[in-house]
Design goal:
245 residues; mainly alpha; 10 helices; globular; single chain
């Protein structure tokens, strides 16, 4: 499995798509942090500080798209045929793609967390904002890194299942911004296991960011997200074994 993951990482980092999405993720996180700090005159309370620092987890959205584009792109460009010649076990390939995407997502999210810390923490101090403990701050940033990894792996599973980059990206965006909010409004209890609710839990956002509703603990939210990813990866491996490449 180590060689499979290493090969997938090599393919990923030699594409312009990876560097483009990574750069876009970092730029969007920094833009969001700077705009909030520059345009907010009121004193930041604890929830405001949590919400701001958890913005680093916003890189996870583009990491989700990265995972989907990367795994689906294998089928578009035909490189999956060479991969399966070397590693014919479809589950190993799908798992390797998900793990490689998770490592890439964690790396980009770690940089986003570091940049957020460098910019936001001194600025918050200058604004006399409410201070969080070092453990809380590290927990929020660690959650952002974890979410980046989980989101990228989820995207890789979805991309491998659909095998079409455009369809995978559109489905991700429609689900996050249309289906998820709709189901949250219509189905009691769905909010805490929705992708949005899980993201807020994992990245350490405040409950006010999610309408004031209770959220799952970080560990439980991560396990639910892993379960979703495992279903996608397993389904991708099963369907791929029944399709011609």
């Amino acid at each position: 499995m180590t060689r499979v993951v290493s090969a997938e990482l090599l393919k990923m980092r030699t594409t312009r798509t990876f560097w483009g999405l990574a750069g876009a993720a970092l730029a969007l996180v920094m833009l969001a942090v700077v705009l909030v700090l520059a345009l907010t005159d009121d004193r930041f309370d604890e929830n405001d500080v949590r919400s701001l620092l958890s913005s680093a987890g916003g890189a996870g959205l583009l990491m989700l798209i990265l995972g989907a584009v990367f795994s689906a792109g294998e089928y578009r460009h035909g490189t999956i045929a060479w991969t399966l010649l070397v590693t014919p076990v479809r589950l190993r390939v799908a798992t390797g793609q998900a793990l490689a995407s998770a490592l890439a997502g964690a790396a980009v999210s770690l940089v986003a967390a570091a940049m957020t810390a460098v910019v936001a923490l001194p600025w918050l101090g200058a604004k006399d904002a409410v201070s969080l403990s070092s453990g809380e701050v590290l927990g929020i940033f660690a959650g952002g890194v974890l979410y980046g990894a989980l989101a990228a792996a989820f995207g890789a599973g979805l991309g491998a299942l659909l095998r079409n980059q455009v369809v995978a990206v559109v489905l991700v965006l429609v689900w996050l911004f249309v289906v998820d909010p709709t189901l949250t409004a219509l189905v009691d209890g769905y909010d805490i296991i929705s992708l949005g609710g899980l993201q807020t839990s994992i990245t350490g956002g405040s409950e006010e960011d999610f309408g004031g509703d209770d959220l799952l603990p970080v560990g439980a939210a991560a396990l639910v997200w892993l379960a979703y990813t495992a279903v996608l990866v397993g389904a991708a491996a099963l369907l791929t074994s029944r399709r011609d490449i």
